[in-house]
Amino acid sequence: MIASLSGIRGILNQDFSLADVARYSSNFAAATGGKEFLLARDTRKTGPAICRAVAAGVMSSGGMVIDYGVISTPALFRESRVRGVAAVMVTASHNEPEYNGLKFITGGAGIGEETFEKVIGNGLAGERWFVGGRWGKPAKPGYVDSLAARYGEGSCEGVRVAVDLGGGAAIAHAVPLLRRLGCEVVSLNDAYSVFTRVVDPVADDLALLRRTVKEKGCAIGLGFDCDGDRLVIVDSSGKKRSGDYMLTLALERLIPETRERQVVVSMDTTQAVDDIAAKAGCRVLRSKVGEANVVRTMREAGARLGGEGSSGGLIDGDFNFCRDSLLAALTIIKALREEGDALYSSVPSYHQERVALRTPRQKAEKVFRALARKYDRTDLTDGLKIALPHQAWVLMRPSGTEDVVRVSAEAPSVARAKSIAKDFARVLDGREP
Asked: Do residues 91 and 226 make contact, with C-beta atoms less than 8 angstroms apart?
């Protein structure tokens, strides 16, 4: 089981049990002290059982559970924010279907370290007795209405969009919203809990989506993960674009529109964001990798915009303090309606290579310290990031969601990015490049 601010993830009855789920949920209810708690899930088959365990834990503290059933993670974050109520999302996000987990939300944002420590502890101090709570069903979430109001009914009129929903929670929102805004929609993998590709659209080649975009003459293709917070786009030629490219494209539109003077992105996000921000007179701040870290830095700096390129995640703090795939998609689709295919060449694009190694954390940290002494331009904010000549960089860091060390490299060419990643992976393995 992996437990971090990003959530608790594992395989039910292997890494964690329903009793664990109930305990974590009871601890969360007690730590936040609320009377009402929102609950939702993605489409994994273990979701209903885990939801019942969450409800049992919350109700043991006398809480009222408001159950939304299957909705996306961004939709639940939005509901928590609008209603001012704590929430639990049952999801393992982009992990494969056999995994599941819990994401805890307060005030429309992920929880902090102090609350997290209470959640995963053995229980709060003092005697705890069962107090019967209630479990009810809500009205439909207001997420789609909020996005429709933000972008305007019919604002994307005539744009043909192919949508690969991946059997996940985005099924609940994406197609109705896009049609409401005037898009012509071709829907793929739109049966709940039927997973016909890799859950993470960043890791899948999205072959069906790419082919459909070309055959149906679509302006764009959208690929979602299981809980609907990640987004990967396919351009009108059928080319799959990276999450970093998608984020850069969205921010290139939003920074001038919002007149923001600072934007927060994770350490592993492309330097293309720095390029487009500089043109708009905007400063880029870098946080540790992870949505919770980006959001925390945004709040500390008073920044509205942020994101993570590696996960295809755009964050607009005026709407949601989480990655919001549909917010990003609509920003890009509206721009496509205005500019056409020229939009795709409007931002710079670098090449990234990512490698995951089973290097022990202690060994990796020793290598980081040695390399920090060897190179001049280094950053130890999250693992070790080294600025290299000719617009290149490498980041080496232990993952927060998997038991691996990640090596991410970026450069103007594919060959250079691959070479950098390979060389530093060899160093982590104890061999000189």
From this structure: yes
Query: What is the spatial order of strands in the sheet that 283-287 belongs to?
Result: 283-287, 262-266, 305-308, 313-316
CA pair distance 31, 296, nearest whole angstrom: 20
- Amino acid identity of 18? L
**pLDDT, average across residues 231-248:** 96
| Domain shared by 95 and 180, yes or no | no
Nearest-angstrom CA–CA distance, 43 and 96: 12
From the list 201, 183, 142, 206, the residue with the least C-alpha distance to 330 is: 183
Instruction: Compute the Cα dihedral for 426, 395, 270, 74 and give only its sign.
Output: positive
Percentage of the chain with pLDDT > 90?
84
Is residue 72 located within the same domain as residue 86? Answer: yes
Residue 50 has pLDDT above 70, yes or no: yes
The total number of structural domains that make up the chain: 4
Q: What is the mean pLDDT of the chain?
A: 93
DSSP H/E element including 220? strand 220-224
Instruction: Give the amino acid at 124.
Output: L
Handedness of CA 70, 74, 75, 78 (dihedral sign): positive
Separation between Cα atoms, residue 306 and residue 325, nearest integer Å: 13
- What's the CATH number where 209 sits? 3.40.120.10
- Work out the average pLDDT over 227-251: 96
Q: Are residues 359 and 422 in the same domain?
A: yes
Contact assessment for residue 101 and residue 90, using Cβ atoms and an 8 Å cutoff: yes
The pLDDT of residue 137: 73
Residues 306, 414: one domain? no
Listing DSSP states for 179-242 in one string gives HHTT-EEEEES-STT---S-S-TTTS--HHHHHHHHHTT-SEEEEE-TTS--EEEE-TTSPBPP
Radius of gyration of the chain (CA): 21
Strand partners of residue 257:
none
CA pair distance 49, 349, nearest whole angstrom: 44
What are the CA-CA distances from residue 151 to residues 83, 114, 177 (Å)?
A: 22, 37, 11
Residue at a domain's end among 312, 327, 345 = 345
